[in-house]
Amino acid sequence: MERQITLIALFAALIAVLGLVPQFTLASGVPITAQGMGIMLCGTVLGARRGALAVLLFLALVALGLPLLAGGRGGLGVFVGPTVGFLVGFPIAAFVAGWIVERMRNTPILTAAFIGAVIGGIPVLYVFGIIGMSVTLDKTIAESALLVTPFVPGDLIKAGLAAALTASLLKARPASVLSRG
Amino acid sequence: MLTLTSDIRTPYHPIRAGAKLALLCAATVGLFMLDSLAAMAAANAAVAALYLAAGRQFAKDGLRLLKPVWVFVALVLAWHVLTQDTLAGLVIALRLTAAVALANLVTMTTRFDDMVEVVMWLLSPLRRLGIRTAPIGFAIVLVVRFIPVLLAKARNLIEAWRARSPRRAGWQVALPIALVAIDDAEHVAEALRARGGFDAE
Questions:
Q1: Nearest CA in chain A to B113
Q2: B165 three-class SS
Q3: Are residues B100 and B182 both part of a single domain?
Q4: Are the beta carbons of A43 and A95 closer than 8 angstroms?
Q5: Of A15, A61, A145, B144, whose CB neighbour count within 10 A is largest?
Q6: What is the extent of the structural domain holding A120?
Q7: Where are the beta strands (DSSP E) in A87-180?
Q8: Å between A106 CA and nearest CA of chain B
Q9: What are the chain A neighbours of B170 within 8 Å (beta carbons)?
Q10: Domain ranges, residue B107
Q11: Confidence band of B14 (pLDDT split at 50, 70, 90)
């Protein structure tokens, strides 16, 4: 119990710290931050349930008024802003990523974690993000989808990095990778 | 730790956090139900008045907190001018700014600890179902403590990289940072268990 809580808290903190890493810009001019990678890591390392809990804990701190979202955003305002859908999708993305890694127990971790991070972090997360934008900006689903597609290449890179990190962690600290424990 | 709560004392600080949150919920639902330009303009004027009543510097801080919204406001307006439906675009943009500004106002005038207290109060019915809520409060404190520790460790490792390489530290430092962090978490967990863990409360 104590161990699980501390690891969940640690990964919540990790999402926050990754959000503080300066963002870099893709060739297409789209800024990407490392925060999304933190969400994927929660799932691929902690597993479905605990990964989702870590993300929820992180979101709770944002809602309570800590400026932990990438770019120093935070507070209650972000939950009524245009990106609210992504915030709602974050824990579900981590859950799906973790669920896939847990399910693909016999697949090498690198492959399983990459598939999990891609499916959780792109289609699943984007569905929520797009719905959120279409509601807050009063746009159709197709119009909102157009707004977020430039971010797909960056998220693929993040999924690759998250998978590589998960695989290395499993090698170095097998007991701490709860998704394969 | 840095929070978004304003240091400038306002008349809104003493109001109970729970009351402010309840009002905010009601106001936000209202904003999304109303659909006329006049209502949205009035809502924005009201929110602006709330900010200005707390002083000019406070209003300025509030405006700065709204910055991430401007991109979307510009996007929506441009879109609607193109589709020749400027009126609808204005309504959407105004609703967005009013809703976000109002939520930010609550965040700026409520202490972090008071917010945590509201959360624990909202969670208290869970206790009757046999779910322990103390670990949740503990986890919140733990994250707040972990963030600066993690940042300091990351900084150390990046400096160590710089001392050895002419290139900038990239994703290669991510693994050592994660390892140091996980080892730390395991130590904290061990220390907790040694002191009786959550059952000690």
A1: A64
A2: coil
A3: no
A4: yes
A5: A15
A6: 2-180
A7: none
A8: 24
A9: none
A10: 17-114
A11: very high
